[in-house]
Design a protein that fits this description.
14 helices, alpha/beta, seven-stranded mixed beta sheet, Aspartate Aminotransferase, domain 2, about 40% helix, 2 domains, single chain
Length: about 400
């Protein structure tokens, strides 16, 4: 067996199940889950129609590169969304469809990491656990950068030593962040690109929450935006990951893409050819329909905006929590330790959240997620309001 498997930690939800095992919640309250970040808004009907209209493609072997129509739709969306010069993002060289970002993030790490050289894969802390597992199974060492409130819940990149950057092979970014919702400023992205050039590492930007934001007039910038403003039309050392799961409420479609540096994507395509992970053609055609439409995405943002407004108004004054820059999570401070808060909230109010310490790693005796909880506002509005009222009552009775 691969000895690196022994280094993998239980997933946060396994820890959560163990924490809540044997706890009997209040029988007079229905269960409300704010724990798993699974979108619950209705999937677009026109995407489902495109899928069913193309079921004859079940008889076709898909190619790993994907159909030209999907790569073109993705390239056009990126150009519109991130203000890229026309024609700079080549659908044939700079875009690769993938079966959701989770699979892609893992496989990408296996492609890029050079084994047996003591390399580091750097990620924010707290973080999406795939970054860590992918690093360990690729033969690299994870290195965690704490995301603290005093730095806007982004890593303090200026505090990273040259020696650490020298050993870095991949820098994972997540903007808006999971679970913090923090955006990485475009000037910071440009500084990181300069560091990638200086120390020869790859920036892998997980931007799967990029379409969930609050100000319709100012969509958040991404890594491709920074490349465009720098005139970096080859996207050297820069790769972004996007998905339809959160943007379009299509987590079950398992459809996303990777875009950026053509040389890296050429190697990634070779890896994926052996990996056996081509997206079914009918799924690709449904994805074309989704990437070509923005109305359903704006409607999706409106639903989240309504939930954030309602929940934050209820929690105001009883819980230390702020509106994030983006995403659909609240990253709240707890008046008691996060595990006890989570367990007692479940027992008394039948509301499930995730302890922040489960989403982070302790480094030098400090866990940046300790004393916080993550709440995913994915349930219907009425359930989110009810959950917030229960949380308010729970905290007030402490």
């Amino acid at each position: 067996m691969n000895h690196a498997l022994a280094q993998l930690q239980p997933y946060p939800f396994e820890k959560l199940r163990a924490l809540l095992a044997g706890v009997q919640p209040a029988a007079d309250r229905s269960a409300i889950a704010l724990s798993i970040g699974e979108p619950k808004h209705r999937s677009p009907a026109f995407v489902a129609q495109a899928l069913t209209d193309n079921l004859e493609q079940l008889a076709v072997y898909p190619t790993t590169l994907g159909i030209a129509a999907l790569r073109e739709a993705i390239a056009n969306w990126c150009s519109r969304r991130f203000n890229l010069p026309a024609g700079v993002l080549d659908p044939a060289r700079h875009v690769l469809p993938v079966n959701g970002t989770r699979e892609a993030l893992f496989a990408f790490t296996q492609t890029v990491v050079k084994r047996d050289v003591g390399g580091l894969v750097i990620s924010p802390n707290p973080f999406y656990q795939i970054y860590e597992g992918a690093a360990l199974l690729a033969g690299a060492q994870p290195h965690y950068l704490p995301c603290l409130e005093e730095h806007g819940f982004n890593p303090d990149f200026d505090a990273v030593s040259d020696d650490t950057w020298q050993h870095c092979q991949i820098l994972f970014l997540c903007s808006p962040g999971n679970p913090t919702g923090a955006l990485i400023p475009i000037d910071t992205l440009k500084k990181l690109i300069a560091l990638a050039d200086k120390f020869d590492f790859v920036i892998a930007a997980d931007e799967c929450y990029s379409e969930l934001y609050f100000d319709e007039d100012h969509p958040p910038a991404g890594l491709l935006t920074a490349c465009a403003e720098l005139g970096r039309n080859d996207f050297k050392r820069c790769v972004v990951f996007h998905s339809l799961s959160k943007r379009s409420n299509l987590p079950g479609l398992r459809s996303g893409f990777v875009a950026g540096d053509a040389d890296i994507l050429k190697a990634f395509l070779l890896y994926r050819t052996y990996h056996g992970c081509a997206m079914p053609v009918q799924t690709q055609l449904a994805s074309v329909a989704a990437w070509n439409d923005e109305e359903h995405v704006k409607a999706n943002r409106d639903l989240y905006r309504e939930k954030f407004d309602a929940v934050l108004a209820i929690l105001d004054g009883v819980l230390d929590v702020q509106r994030p820059d983006g995403g659909f999570y609240l990253w709240a401070k707890t008046p008691i330790d996060d595990e006890t808060f989570t367990r007692e909230l479940f027992a008394r109010e039948h509301v499930t959240v995730v302890p922040g310490s489960y989403l982070s790693r302790e480094v030098d005796g400090f866990n940046p997620g300790a004393g916080r909880i993550r709440m995913a506002l994915v349930a219907p509005l009425a359930e989110c309001i009810e959950a917030a009222q229960r949380i308010r009552r729970f905290v007030s009775n402490q």
